[in-house]
């Protein structure tokens, strides 16, 4: 049996219970002298650092089982945290416990950590991410789960965003959908989930049990840069592996700027970031052009569509994508008329590009007047 001291996200008891897969954990308040918790710069979790004269507050978990320890090391190992023994202070006196410390030099230290701030902004995302992480416990190694933390965070962000959208006023999913089984079948750049369920049919009866799959992509942004003064747009071209895998002999595809929404980002923040990374553009403003699922029968990918108002008077400097993401992107600037001629002649095969172009056609005159 082991005692562990938690100072950060695992002080949120529902998250701790999700990681351990059980409730009824023996917990008591405790402090670690000469240490303090700080935000990891740009991240949604804290770091424990030496801080003479200060004390890190947290919870001491008593008599955790070997299985509890294994689950905690699996979860924390993905964050590159290792454990060591310390002496903490409790109301009953000092106690020895293990604590998870960050890998030295892995992250920069930010502002002092505050649990309530984390709960307001990150708890829902971390709870969902923990569910997916722990679904791979016993199936993935520590290295495998660590390599997939980025897509898991993107999946969790998309799920929380989806839950915030309005419910169907004429349906109650808790009553009208019955989940028989749900399993995560695959995880890498994207994930694959399978489900067996019944749903209420239009005549009021329940359907037979159906087996369905979902490609777990996440939430994305699509930005068509447009210069209303010059009446020009910017497109990007890149190699698309799924198009190649489909057997298509033209897997280099012209598209708008696009990318996935990272944890902690709003779609608007992501749109500006992607415009800079892929096309070297600083957008003046964003015009929302809709929010849609790209393929409701196969994927959870939700697209936030934007027209990005920009100055396209010269070929942008920079852009081209990120090397560490394997991106190789070129851009082209063309007139609005050339864009719509390509749409009419079915030259473009990217659905978000065609959708954004048609939205632009409806709102072009207003945008040109606004400049």
Automatic annotation (TrEMBL):
Its cofactor is Mg(2+). Signal peptide: none annotated. Residues 216-356 form the Nudix hydrolase domain. It is an enzyme of class 3 (hydrolase). Its EC number is 3.6.1.13. Mg(2+) binds at residues 258, 274, 278, 327. One of its GO terms (cellular component) is cytosol. Acts on ADP-mannose and ADP-glucose as well as ADP-ribose. Prevents glycogen biosynthesis. The reaction catalyzed by this enzyme is a limiting step of the gluconeogenic process. Belongs to the Nudix hydrolase family. NudF subfamily. NCBIfam families: nudix-type nucleoside diphosphatase, YffH/AdpP family. This is ADP-ribose pyrophosphatase. It comes from Pseudooceanicola lipolyticus. The lineage of its organism: Bacteria, Pseudomonadati, Pseudomonadota, Alphaproteobacteria, Rhodobacterales.
């Amino acid at each position: 049996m082991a005692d562990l001291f938690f100072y950060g996200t695992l002080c949120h008891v529902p998250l701790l219970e999700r990681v351990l897969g059980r409730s009824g954990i023996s917990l008591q308040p405790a402090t670690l002298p000469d240490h303090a918790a700080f935000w990891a710069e740009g991240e949604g979790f804290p770091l424990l650092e030496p801080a003479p004269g200060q004390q890190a507050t947290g919870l001491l978990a008593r008599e955790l089982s070997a299985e509890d320890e294994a689950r905690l090391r699996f979860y924390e190992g993905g964050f590159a945290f290792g454990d060591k023994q310390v002496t903490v202070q409790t109301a009953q006196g000092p106690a020895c416990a293990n604590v998870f410390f960050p890998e030295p030099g892995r992250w920069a230290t930010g502002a002092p950590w505050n649990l309530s701030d984390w709960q307001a902004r990150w708890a829902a995302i971390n709870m969902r991410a923990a569910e997916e992480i722990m679904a791979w416990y016993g199936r993935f190694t520590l290295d495998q789960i660590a390599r997939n933390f980025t897509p898991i965070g993107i999946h969790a962000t998309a799920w929380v965003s989806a839950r915030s959208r309005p419910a169907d006023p004429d349906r109650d999913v808790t009553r009208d959908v019955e989940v028989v089984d749900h399993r995560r079948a695959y995880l890498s750049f994207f994930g694959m989930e399978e489900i067996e369920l019944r749903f209420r049919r239009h005549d009021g009866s329940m359907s037979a049990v159906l087996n369905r799959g979902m490609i777990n992509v996440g939430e994305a942004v699509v930005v068509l840069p447009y210069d209303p003064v010059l009446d020009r747009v910017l497109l990007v071209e890149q190699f698309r592996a799924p198009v190649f895998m489909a057997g298509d002999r033209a897997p280099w595809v012209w598209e708008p700027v696009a990318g996935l929404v990272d944890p902690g980002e709003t779609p608007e923040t992501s749109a500006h970031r992607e415009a800079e990374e892929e096309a070297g553009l600083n957008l003046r403003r964003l015009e929302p052009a809709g929010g849609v699922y790209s393929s409701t029968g196969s994927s959870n990918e939700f697209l936030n569509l934007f027209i990005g108002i920009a100055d396209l008077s010269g070929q942008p400097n920079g852009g081209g994508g990120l090397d560490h993401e394997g991106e190789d992107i070129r851009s082209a600037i063309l007139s609005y008329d050339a864009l719509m001629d390509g749409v009419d002649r079915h030259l473009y095969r990217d659905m978000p590009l065609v959708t954004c172009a048609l939205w632009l056609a409806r709102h072009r005159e207003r945008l040109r007047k606004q400049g």
